[in-house]
């Protein structure tokens, strides 16, 4: 039953009008040393962006829900979901993301270096996902889900916990750090 719901949900994402869908190669070295492909879907009508990073065992999926100001990243290798508040000062608006994706499609990285965000994962599992909205609750349903809080400032070199990194194209580097990442 869960599988059917997931398939129906995914089909809905592809059928909904207003989606702009782009596939971008994040490295062109034949899937060696961290290469892969990202696809970005922007739905202006529902104020949501979906980023799929296909890179073998290091694949992940991110959902940015601009309507509720929360984002979730599902880490396939860890079989877990991490939810966090969107930092609108660093994360691009949905209109800016759409324009950046169109601009970077088929091009090598150029321009300013990506912005960095670092999150500390709370080790307590979230039981009620409804407060994050139906889109994120649906994506993380049935998975161990944790809330992460942003760590202010450039603290990554000094952070002693293991981190999992999700780089969004060449515009944003997100690191999720904490004992939860080490458990899996």
UniProtKB/TrEMBL annotation:
<feature type="domain" description="BRICHOS">
    <location>
        <begin position="54"/>
        <end position="148"/>
    </location>
</feature>
<dbReference type="GO" id="GO:0008083">
    <property type="term" value="F:growth factor activity"/>
</dbReference>
<keyword id="KW-0964">Secreted</keyword>
<dbReference type="GO" id="GO:0051781">
    <property type="term" value="P:positive regulation of cell division"/>
</dbReference>
<dbReference type="GO" id="GO:0030141">
    <property type="term" value="C:secretory granule"/>
</dbReference>
<keyword id="KW-0732">Signal</keyword>
<dbReference type="Pfam" id="PF04089">
    <property type="entry name" value="BRICHOS"/>
</dbReference>
<dbReference type="InterPro" id="IPR051772">
    <property type="entry name" value="Gastrokine"/>
</dbReference>
<dbReference type="GO" id="GO:0005794">
    <property type="term" value="C:Golgi apparatus"/>
</dbReference>
<comment type="similarity">
    <text>Belongs to the gastrokine family.</text>
</comment>
<comment type="function">
    <text>Has mitogenic activity and may be involved in maintaining the integrity of the gastric mucosal epithelium.</text>
</comment>
<keyword id="KW-0333">Golgi apparatus</keyword>
<dbReference type="GO" id="GO:0008284">
    <property type="term" value="P:positive regulation of cell population proliferation"/>
</dbReference>
<protein>
    <recommendedName>
        <fullName>Gastrokine-1</fullName>
    </recommendedName>
</protein>
<dbReference type="InterPro" id="IPR007084">
    <property type="entry name" value="BRICHOS_dom"/>
</dbReference>
<dbReference type="GO" id="GO:0005576">
    <property type="term" value="C:extracellular region"/>
</dbReference>
<keyword id="KW-0497">Mitogen</keyword>
<keyword id="KW-1015">Disulfide bond</keyword>
<feature type="signal peptide">
    <location>
        <begin position="1"/>
        <end position="20"/>
    </location>
</feature>
């Amino acid at each position: 039953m869960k599988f059917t719901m997931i398939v129906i949900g995914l089909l809905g994402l592809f059928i909904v009008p207003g989606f702009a869908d782009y596939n971008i190669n994040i490295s062109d070295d034949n899937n060696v040393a961290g290469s892969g492909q990202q696809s970005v879907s922007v739905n202006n009508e529902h104020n949501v962006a979906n980023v799929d990073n296909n890179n073998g065992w290091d694949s992940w999926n991110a959902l940015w829900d601009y309507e509720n100001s929360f984002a979730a990243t599902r880490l396939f290798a860890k079989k877990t979901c991490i939810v966090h508040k969107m930092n609108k000062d660093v994360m691009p608006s949905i209109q800016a993301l759409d324009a950046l994706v169109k601009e970077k499609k088929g091009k090598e990285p150029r321009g300013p270096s990506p912005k960095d965000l670092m999150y500390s994962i709370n080790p307590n599992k979230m039981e009620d996902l409804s407060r994050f909205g139906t889109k994120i609750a649906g994506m993380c349903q049935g998975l161990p889900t944790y809330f992460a809080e942003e760590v202010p400032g450039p603290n990554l070199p000094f952070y002693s916990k293991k981190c999992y990194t999700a780089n969004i194209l060449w515009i944003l580097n997100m690191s999720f750090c904490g004992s939860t990442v080490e458990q899996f």
